[in-house]
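[Discussion] Sanity-checking designs against the backbone

I'm trying to build intuition for which residues belong where. Below is a structure token string of 187 positions. I'd appreciate it if someone posts a full sequence so I can compare it with mine line by line.
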């Protein structure tokens, strides 16, 4: 996807090094790049620039997924035409669905390159399904996958402190370590 006219993109991520690297890569591809490191910065820039595209990290200062979801919601309310892709290092089906319901068009898990991000922006086919629609086997995650996502989300919230995460999960520290040593469940 090469922009004919300079498309504007807002990069929202609290990791300055990562954000700068992305900004350079998008700039080299002809995009007008705007950056923000927090919810407040993102809203300030978005009101001023009204970007066509936005790449939003799910976890912003404060350490919760709610902050990135707040950005998605606010950007969508500000301009529903903004094509929003959510990016995170801790993917989960629940937060992906939340992001899409709030206005994101796609959800990517780090690590990801600019090509993958551009491909996500190009695909505008994501739709949330009605809650009363029956799920197919391919859409329902296994219990092991949901457990794995929950454990990693709690561990992330505890900044990697296994003892604290184990207490919050109601597990013995060694039991949690055994679960973490297993390979991640694919579904």
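Best answer:
Here's mine. Compare freely.
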């Amino acid at each position: 996807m090469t922009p004919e006219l300079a498309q504007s993109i807002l990069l929202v991520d609290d990791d300055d090094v990562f954000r700068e690297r992305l900004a350079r890569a998008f700039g080299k591809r002809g995009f007008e790049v705007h950056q923000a490191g927090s919810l407040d910065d993102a809203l300030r820039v978005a009101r001023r620039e009204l970007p066509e595209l936005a790449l939003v990290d799910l976890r912003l200062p404060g350490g919760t997924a709610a902050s990135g979801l707040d950005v998605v919601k606010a950007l969508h309310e500000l301009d529903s035409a903004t094509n929003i892709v959510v990016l995170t290092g801790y993917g989960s089906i629940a937060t992906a669905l939340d992001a899409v319901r709030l206005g994101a068009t796609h959800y990517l898990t780090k690590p990801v390159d600019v090509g993958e991000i551009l491909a996500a922006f190009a695909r505008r086919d994501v739709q949330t399904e009605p809650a009363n629609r029956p799920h197919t086997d391919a859409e329902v995650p296994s219990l092991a996958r949901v457990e794995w996502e929950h454990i990693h989300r709690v561990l992330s919230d505890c900044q990697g402190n296994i003892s604290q995460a184990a207490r919050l999960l109601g597990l013995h520290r060694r039991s949690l370590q055994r679960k973490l040593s297993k390979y991640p469940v694919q579904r």
